[in-house]
Design a protein that fits this description.
This protein is mostly beta strands.
Length: about 200
């Protein structure tokens, strides 16, 4: 849903890079969000009775505002800049039970895509989606193949079809794309193209 970029001010606000089209809904005041890092603990985060707590319990959105084009969020559990700084770079997610399947046929939840079979245009099996990687510029599908993991840009030029009914994703990869996946390898250039679908 979002990635925490940096702390803002001294009262615990953080700047968030949204990774969802439903910003107002996902980041509404009172919403419970989780961090993908799980059980990081800090004495500055309030737990039951005001004592130390864990991020695993989630963060409650207290206030949301835009400031110079940036989304700023205050969480009830984050009370100062020191705590906010510990959240830098972490990804915000929502409990799966609170997310309804999108009504837009071109929008998908991560949990819908993970586990789907990936095939080439000709029907050849490629692998299975194991994760959705959210980058500032685009989303990538992490696909387990017989040769290891490949990262596939989730754009219409490369992913022309996602079939919920058969849990199948059809791809049309450029030469060499399926040989990628190791850290440090640059992805081939992908033309500016509307995403095949957005994820939350």
């Amino acid at each position: 849903m979002g990635r925490i970029a940096r702390a803002h001010g001294i009262h615990g606000e953080v700047s968030v890079v949204p990774l969802t089209d439903a910003i107002e809904e996902r980041f509404a005041a009172g919403a419970l969000l989780h961090l993908d890092s799980g059980h990081r603990t800090t004495g500055a985060v309030r737990g039951a009775g005001g004592g130390p707590g864990t991020f695993a319990a989630g963060l409650h959105v207290e206030r949301v505002r835009w400031h110079h084009g940036r989304l700023l969020i205050a969480f009830a559990e984050v009370v100062d800049r020191t705590t906010a700084e510990t959240l830098r770079g972490l990804r915000l997610t929502a409990p799966a039970s609170t997310l309804a399947a999108p009504t837009d046929p071109d929008e998908f939840l991560d949990r819908e895509l993970i586990g789907m079979s990936v095939v080439a245009l000709g029907g050849e099996a490629v692998g299975t989606v194991t994760d959705v990687v959210h980058l500032p510029g685009q989303d990538l599908l992490a696909v387990a193949t017989a040769r290891g993991e490949s990262l596939i840009p989730f754009v219409a030029a490369i992913v022309p079809q996602v079939d919920r009914g058969t849990a199948t994703i059809t791809i049309d990869p450029p030469p060499g794309l399926l040989d990628l996946g190791s850290p440090g390898v640059d992805l081939p250039g992908v033309p500016e193209d509307p995403a095949c679908g957005s994820t939350s």
